[in-house]
Design goal:
By secondary structure, the chain is mainly alpha-helical. 60% of the residues lie in helices and 6% in strands.
């Protein structure tokens, strides 16, 4: 009986580690990415910034080895797919002020 309970607990923890925790970390990274755009005033086309200026470029392989997983690039891609973060013709990024207001995340 004790072995069965132990296996069930391990299975539940494995499911949490595989599905729930990464989703939580992605959600947290999404809010961090929005906050980075707000801190750099990259709201609207006129204030668009390059990805390097925002500090959101992907880590190198060596940097990734010594730090935890960075969910911010994945969160940025998600925001771009949902058209909250938009790209100018020259490749700079900005957040649509209208989208931020509709999400109630804009602090004026």
């Amino acid at each position: 009986m004790d072995n069965t309970l132990f296996i069930i607990v391990i299975a539940v923890l494995a499911i949490l580690a595989m599905f729930v925790i990464p989703q939580f970390l992605l959600r947290r990274a999404t809010f961090k990415v929005i906050q980075i755009f707000q801190q750099h005033n990259a709201i609207g086309v006129k204030n668009a910034k390059a990805i390097d200026e925002l500090g959101l470029s992907r880590r190198t392989f060596v940097e990734g080895m010594f730090r935890g997983r960075d969910y911010k690039p994945r969160a940025l891609q998600s925001l771009m797919r949902s058209e909250i973060v938009l790209m100018t013709e020259d490749g700079k990024l900005y957040i649509s002020e209208e989208k931020l207001i509709s999400l109630r995340l804009y602090k004026s």
